[in-house]
Amino acid sequence: MVPPKSYKELGDKIxxxxxxxxxxxxNVIVVDKVKYNRFLAGAFxxxxxxxxxxxDREVLISGTHNECWNEMWPDEDEIINDLxxxxxGEGGYTx
Length: 95
Ligand SMILES: [Zn+2]
Known about the structure:
Blueprint: E1 6-10, E2 13-19, E3 26-32, H1 33-40, H2 45-48, H3 54-62, H4 66-72, H5 76-90
Antiparallel strand pairs: 1-2, 2-3
The protein binds zinc ion.
Residues 20, 22-23, 25, 65, 68 line the site of zinc ion.
């Protein structure tokens, strides 16, 4: 878990600004302050924010944009497709 670059209190909410380590741009997310304090105290993001998407929870854990994160960890289907096309291109071992 990375600390936010800055934060702003908005009543019972808190606006957190992270710096995405992939693209170095700001990533802003607004969450419930009480929940954020539970997270800081060591609760798992998925237990604190079951209603958020895994991408939004990823922001709170690593500060990374959802899109940047997906770029770094493409889903398995894409990896398998890449391997298939590579094998086809090589033409196997029929020398
Ligand atoms: Zn990014």
